[in-house]
Write a structure and sequence with these properties.
2 domains, 17 strands, binds magnesium ion, binds 4-amino-1,4-dioxobutan-2-aminium adenosine-5'-monophosphate, BirA Bifunctional Protein, domain 2, 12 helices, single chain, asparagine--tRNA ligase, ligase, OB fold (Dihydrolipoamide Acetyltransferase, E2P), aminoacyl-trna synthetase, elongated
């Protein structure tokens, strides 16, 4: 027999041929004359209907068991599914005791419930859909960059720089018999990367458009619905970028292109979320794609917050950081749609952000993209390319020695440039409407929790 994936069988590949399908049982319905099974192998949200003689039934054929089915692929009379597998052999490869198995047949378990079983939740329809959307969105982002002339750079996970300087870093130490200098393997303090930006900036000294897409790590002590200790970030760096508008255009293009790709290529899986898990969210996604994203300044955002009658837990004076509650309010104010906020106070952003010297208030050319339900999705800036200004800022922070190589980038062929980082897990929250970031990543790591 020809081995088929469920998705291939569902599309009628090898119709009339002897085929074999392997997967996990999603439903079992023994009837007088016939046995009906649904088998899923992760290739599609839909399961393949298997029909066999009643004698093929086996007490070990239960929800969750692994099976291998051989038979002939036929046209089905069912309107819901055009093809079915007429089985002449069903072999139970791995049994699954339905009493102990945490998921029950025909039940729709909540995301919170399945989160308790990180080693098993991929066997549910909803998490299966999530994983396929995640994979498709990853492909969509890579294809956006490929189509727009960006070169992918593998930036390191182990690094000796703390790009953001926010202090939320994990240190790296060695252990074991080959231990060097009390665990100081690299002879300098090393960390898990918080951002690949500085490495991208190195390469952007020779390549006009580069990007990276991988893990970032932050020892964020807060248990929130949008923070992970290990998350995925999409980062791009573009040389010869003169204005924040140019950067904003790339962010918006990427957001739109990736989202349209996912809606088109993962329609069934996205619909599962938009229809069953987060009803009503599809309208928000459609509205997000309809218009171009408005741009306001930080100062305007502060004015919006000051004019509001809401009592915020945190102050809203000029110079204050925008907290999640502020971001959500600003998004609501803008029609519950995405909004870019630009020109943040100099003191709120890291050393690399470009000084807006011409502004009356001391600000930098930085931009955040705020989106409904999530708040900050993306942060970027023009980078300070002027050697004297950058050196002065690093000296003030006592970092001039640490970053002497970074200063070198401004000594040898420095150009105006800028870039951004988009939180990929938050992006999935944003398009699917998922409330908790732990439900959009296969293996969430957060404070006090590293299961598996
Ligand atoms: O705003 P951030 O800290 O920006 C940077 O790291 C820049 N160096 C990026 C760059 O310009 N190349 O992080 C970027 C994005 C945030 O907007 C947020 O979406 C996401 O990364 N992010 C997190 N996502 C999940 N969990 C966390 N703990 C996150 N911290 C940041
Ligand atoms: Mg940020």
């Amino acid at each position: 027999p020809i081995k088929l994936r469920v998705s291939e069988a569902l599309s009628g590949a090898e119709l009339g041929a002897n085929v074999k399908v392997q997967g996990w049982v999603r439903s079992v319905r023994p009837q007088k004359k016939n046995l009906f099974l649904h088998v899923n192998d992760g290739s599609s949200l839909q399961s393949l209907q298997v029909v066999g003689r009643a004698e093929l039934d086996d007490p070990l054929l239960t929800f969750g068991s692994a099976v291998e089915v051989s038979g002939v692929l036929k046209k089905s009379t069912h309107q819901k599914q055009p093809f079915e597998l007429e089985a002449d052999q069903i072999r139970v490869v791995g049994t699954c005791n339905p009493i102990d198995f945490p998921f029950k047949i025909k039940e729709r378990h909540s995301l919170e419930y399945i989160r308790q079983f990180p080693h098993l939740r991929c066997r549910t329809n909803v998490f299966g859909s999530l994983l396929r959307v995640r994979s498709e969105a990853t492909a969509a982002i890579h294809s956006y960059f490929k189509n727009n002339g960006f070169v992918q750079i593998h930036t390191p996970i182990i690094t000796s720089n703390d790009c953001e300087g926010a202090g939320e870093i994990f240190s790296v130490q060695s252990s074991g018999p080959q231990d060097v200098d009390d665990g100081n393997f690299f002879s300098v303090p090393t960390f898990l990367t918080v951002s690949g930006q500085l490495h991208l900036e190195v390469v952007s000294g020779a390549f006009s458009r580069v990007y990276t897409f991988g893990q970032s790590f932050r020892a964020d002590n807060s248990q929130t619905r949008r923070h992970l200790a290990e998350f995925f970030m999409v980062e791009a760096e573009i040389s010869f970028t003169q204005s924040l508008e140019d950067l904003i255009k790339v962010i918006e293009d990427m957001f739109r292109s990736a989202t349209e790709h996912v809606l088109a290529h993962s329609a069934e899986d996205v619909d599962l979320f938009h229809q069953r898990v987060t009803p009503g969210h599809r309208a928000t996604v459609d509205a997000m794609l309809k218009k171009s994203i408005p741009v306001i300044t930080y100062t305007e955002a502060i004015d919006i917050l000051k004019r509001s009658s809401e009592n915020f837990d945190f102050p809203t004076d000029w110079g204050c950081d925008l907290k999640t509650e502020h971001e959500k309010y600003v998004v609501k104010h803008c029609g519950n749609l995405p909004v870019f906020v630009t020109d943040y106070p100099y003191d709120l952003k890291p050393f690399y952000a470009r000084d807006n010297q011409e502004h009356s208030e001391r600000t930098v050319a930085a931009v955040d993209l705020l989106v409904p339900g999530v708040g900050e999705l993306c942060g970027g800036s023009l980078r300070e390319e002027r050697l004297d200004l950058l050196r002065a800022r690093l000296e003030d922070a006592g970092l001039a020695d640490t970053y002497s190589w970074y200063l070198d980038l401004r000594r040898f062929g420095s150009v105006p440039h800028g870039g951004f980082g988009l939180g990929f897990d938050r992006y999935l929250q944003c398009i699917l409407g998922v409330d908790n970031i732990k439900d959009v990543i296969p293996f969430p790591r957060f404070v006090q929790s590293c299961l598996l």
